[in-house]
Amino acid sequence: MSINDYKGVLVFVEQRFNEIQNVSLELLGKGRKIADELGVDVTAVVPGSDISRHAQLLIEYGADKVMLYDNKALELYTTEPYTQVVVKAITEEKPEVVLFGATSIGRDLAPRVSARLQTGLTADCTSLDISEDRLLMMTRPAFGGNIMATIVSPEHRPQMSTVRPGVMTKMEREPGRKGEVVNAKVALEKNNQFVEVVSFEKEVGTKMDIQEATVLVSGGRGIGSADGFEILDGLAKELNGLVSASRAAVDIGWMPHDRQVGQTGKTVRPNLYIACGISGAIQHVAGMEESDLIIAINKDKDAPIFEIADLGIVGEVQKVLPLVIEEIKKINA
Ligand code: FAD
């Protein structure tokens, strides 16, 4: 079989507690664009239990075909059964491109699938494009984020990549869009790699996800202390936003890791990102440069963050922010 026999884009759709994850809709959006460029279809592969209700949603977000692998054993993610299902789907469908979310599930699953299919995998891609000769150009940070590397897989199929949540954009939902739904057969082959999930403890908490916020007030080492973040909290409250942080602020212990923006944190694209006392290192910028409006406050007029900011304020955060908060309070009153 030649690599030209592989056609189409396949997206692994991730559900957790039977809820489709946003990253899968984002990948369908990107998959749709790639498929349109290549003149092929997008297939969504969904392993889970009692999942038929998701099919139409996935079609409306860009899938031409939805393959439902419905089995009680697939209700919760475990490596081996999911690998079997995805390998089977790829072997039958022969797509040229396969996309996974770079989530804890995708990062566990995709390498195993690629090893079984003896093809390559590019992890944590930040952009995907099609070359003139129909190759998938998979771009990701390399060498500690100092350069961007574009990787191709000219000799093996499928071309597989994982993409972090928040990097791609969903297509606008098209209600009533038509597509094919297949109830695919699953015969799981029990082997010594099977594990049994005894129980699932869901962490309870009121934590909000910075990837969902429309406004982020982000603090770096320039904030000076954990207490210094209170002032950022004050601004975030006035703007209905959340507080996020640079890695330096997280490493010192001023903020928890789930608030970290950047290459080893989360990728965010809020409507407004206010960078306070953040220098603008490439690894930080990689996680926030797609924000609609970026405001930077930094006491160093040469700080690199000003190169990507739409609006820059040169000054001490501790002096500037109280004035900003006061003005916003007047507007909100
Ligand atoms: P600094 O670089 O120390 O900058 C502090 C800034 O605050 C300076 O510009 C200073 O002028 C300003 N300042 C100081 N006092 C004040 C004040 N009173 N008022 C106003 N401004 C003030 N970083 C991330 O953020 N996210 C990542 O995910 C990430 N991943 C990484 C992955 C790798 C492999 C590597 C090698 C690095 C990574 N980093 C990441 C670290 C990154 O390189 C920087 O070290 C980090 O972003 C610096 O954080 P910072 O801007 O808060 O601190």
TrEMBL record:
Protein name: Electron transfer flavoprotein subunit alpha/FixB family protein
Lineage: superkingdom: Bacteria
Lineage of the organism: Bacteria, Bacillati, Bacillota, Clostridia, Eubacteriales
Similarity annotation: Belongs to the ETF alpha-subunit/FixB family.
Pfam families per record: ETF (PF01012), ETF_alpha (PF00766)
InterPro entries: DHS-like_NAD/FAD-binding_dom, ETF_a/b_N, ETF_a/FixB, ETF_alpha_N, ETF_asu_C, ETF_asu_C_CS, Rossmann-like_a/b/a_fold
SUPFAM superfamilies according to UniProt: Adenine nucleotide alpha hydrolases-like (SSF52402), DHS-like NAD/FAD-binding domain (SSF52467)
Keyword Transit peptide: no
Protein keywords: Electron transport, FAD, Flavoprotein, Transport
Keyword Flavoprotein: yes
Residue ranges of every copy of the Electron transfer flavoprotein alpha/beta-subunit N-terminal domain listed in the record: 9-198
